[in-house]
């Protein structure tokens, strides 16, 4: 029995998201086909609504893929693009290596302890992203806390701020909770009698892990990796605050094109390329989430 | 029998949490440092907090941020809850895939792209950028989070209760207000809080969609951070963390109290 108010619930959010989410993407796409201009807003052509059909025709005729051609010919953007993918892949892998033992350990604690630890993983998610990245500036800078600490141990100071290493640390640090939560959810659900059965049958622990625990936790691994990888690729704050000129990432180049160079069509083209790169992982993630929701019902 | 955590588990948990919390703890501790130098501990002092109260630009930014947060979180909660209801209860309506895609896409969309897209919309519509455009932008990206939180609660809610209410003569609207809403209310409240903190924290989307006169607190902090680490910023950050942490603690305490009351009361909480 479907009552009508239920189906009417869709109307308001659908209109809102249609106008403020779906439609703007069409605008970004359109703008990426336009040319830069010294005007406000800084692009051409503009639609002349009063000009009738002929004006709309000339408008469409003026659109082209020039910005994309520039994108492939400019080494800087290709580099930024590859750097983003490299950093995101590396950051995801390190987060997995750090997060898996954490989630595994949490799942083996007593239920009361588990809930407190779970809360502690979620808590950083509520604290400002900007603040958490900024905290690392104070630690990594040459006269920062890390070097004070190393000095106390009698070790040589290291200069990490504005290096790719700093960006990598920042990425892992900021997205670690996104990795731990799905891993924990998968590991906590696991049936531990399986491991006991394996042990009874003479399987050494490492083998039980590879043949039982790891395969069963795979949905969590996939979800965690996608959840880290997708936002890492487009990250702006971390490379901007922690990275130097050698770690230009694509999110930061969109920002620079937009605010510093005021080249809106070019920034839009970069954004569209970034979006196309992320479509596959985003769709993968959504399908996996949908499956998990159906299973949880 | 289930074995407890091994030493390896304990070490990885300890190191993991140290990594997550040490930077924040250090930042909070250094906001009370009397010395302006990071390397020197000059004794305990609250002088940087006092200095904040003199910073009018900062206070103005904080006020803008709070207003944007309150308004956008409230609208996002209404829209997000409606979206969750439509997804859980709407059945297979036309365009459902498209709709759920739109609801959940902002969760994984890079902020830079969201900000750019919204800015182009506001420019195309001829809106003056400022308070209202930031508010609209924040509502749009936070409503997805509300939808997720409410969604997870709604799927566990027993629909037979609603049908019982309707059999007893409630209209669908009444059964929603009297039965469904009180039951999913903790999730709605959690969604509001999440939306509010996300709005409070957002830098990228606000930077794109804001205009002169509507600088938010993260934008202000960001412009200061670019100039270097100062004790004043540490103090602002500590205050922000304190506000959010207090909110969460109060929220989880009321949750405990609510579920406790429900378990003691005649009506059992349905979960």
**How would you classify the quaternary structure?**
heterodimer
CATH class of the largest domain in chain A: Mainly Alpha
In this structure, how is the largest beta sheet of chain B organized?
Answer: none
Beta-strand percentage of chain A? under 5%
Quote the beta fraction of chain B: under 5%
Which CATH-level-2 architecture of the domain at 58-225 in chain B? Orthogonal Bundle
Would you tell me which CATH topology of the domain at 58-225 in chain B applies?
Answer: MetI-like fold
Share of residues in helices of chain B? over 70%
Shape of chain A: globular
Q: Which class of secondary structure composition applies to the elements of chain A?
A: mainly alpha
| Strand order of the biggest β-sheet of chain A | 1-2
CATH architecture descriptor text of the largest domain in chain A: Orthogonal Bundle
- Percent of residues in helices of chain A comes to over 70%
CATH superfamily of the domain at 58-225 in chain B: MetI-like
Largest sheet of chain A: 2 strands, antiparallel
Average pLDDT of chain A: 84
Order of helices and strands of chain B: HHHHHHHHHHH
